[in-house]
Amino acid sequence: MPLSVFDRARRAGLMLALMAAAPAFAQDVSWAQWGIDPSVLAADGRDLLRRAPDASIDGLFQAVHASAQSPQDARVLCTLFDPQAERSIAGYNAIAAQLGEASRTHFATAVADLVIAAAQSPRQPFDAATAQQALKAAGVRAALLDDGFVAGLNGGDHDARCRSVGALLDAVQARPLAERAAVTRLLLSEGLNYLAAANAGPGTR
Description:
Elements: H1 3-12, H2 15-28, H3 39-42, H4 45-51, H5 54-68, H6 71-78, H7 89-96, H8 101-119, H9 128-145, H10 149-154, H11 158-173, H12 177-200
Helix pairs in contact: 1-12, 2-7, 2-8, 4-8, 4-12, 5-8, 5-11, 5-12, 6-11, 9-11, 9-12
């Protein structure tokens, strides 16, 4: 399995879940209404990821997987995997704005659940190497079930790439909750790292 498959997955990751939910949630809900100290949102997002239980992390994955079932939203999500995609806060927000209302609401609910659960939980055990192996196993499974999976991810055809992304999401969805959460936590963590490096400027990646 070419490394670029997983490099693209890390870079696009599931950061869209956070970027998509923020505008919708900010417009419709007061943090105080949920009993959340707004200062929690100013904390390092990595700490939220470390504290969020598997079930709430999986909620983010389920939001992404559900959106991928909609042809319109799937096309929006797949733009994150295009080589020329702008992976910045502005870029994520522009993509988020194109999602359907149902997807934005689903993301908003998932993020709200994650923030609440993380605020009430201790740090969770996490093994990045195990999560990496689970991601690779999902990629191998997707390749076995779809002959065009690898070519789709690495080729220049947007529609083929989108189908391959969907196949990878389906392969992860088929795994137990603990594995799905581990993969999601890995991708979110590395997505945060990539975004931080991008915002820091050239020479940091």
